Every structure is written in structure tokens, then in C-alpha cells.
Amino acid sequence: MRYYYFGIQMSYEQCSAFYKGRTPSIQVTDITGRTIRFPAAKILPFMSQIGIRGQFRLTLDDNNKFVSLERI
């Protein structure tokens, strides 16, 4: 397994493209400086009226396939 830790602070307006399906992926930079891209649909469960805020852990398997995304 591979783990990537990152933070996000996005307003509701910034997240609306993900929610409406206009943006298929999200790109973040983890705490070590690596750039990671994953399907935007994976972040939607964490969206609220204020947007998305918090620290997250993305877990991928050894073939770089999505396993989980969780707020930490």
C-alpha cells in the first residue's frame, strides 16, 4: 500500500465544478511535495456548505489503484 497525506481548503464555489461533473479529477500536492491526481468523485463525500477543508490520507494499492480516501 502507498499512503499520501495532503490538505485541502476549497470554497463551495471552487468545489462546484467537481460536484457538477465538469472537472473529472483533482490534483493535490502531498506533504512531501509529490503531485497526485485522482478522480474528483472521491472527494465529494467530504464536501459541505463551506466547501472542502481538512487533512486527508489517500491510500493506493501497489498498482496505484485507489483504495480509500479519509479525513485525518
Polypeptide structure, described:
By secondary structure, this protein is mainly beta. It is built from 1 helix and 5 strands; from the N terminus they run E-H-E-E-E-E. The strands form 2 sheets. It has a 3-stranded antiparallel sheet with strand order 1-4-5. The chain has a two-stranded antiparallel sheet with strand order 2-3. The longest helix is centred in the first third of the chain and has 8 residues, at 12-19.
Strand order of the largest sheet: 1-4-5
In terms of per-residue confidence, which ranges show pLDDT below 50 for 5 or more consecutive residues? Answer: none
The CATH topology annotation reads as OB fold (Dihydrolipoamide Acetyltransferase, E2P)
User: What's the CATH architecture name?
Assistant: Beta Barrel
Number of helices: 1
* Order of helix and strand elements from N to C terminus: EHEEEE
The share of residues in extended strands comes to over 45%
Task: Give a quick account of the main beta sheet: strands, pairing sense, barrel closure.
Answer: 3 strands, antiparallel
Give the CATH class.
Mainly Beta
Regarding quaternary structure, what we see is: single chain
Number of strands: 5
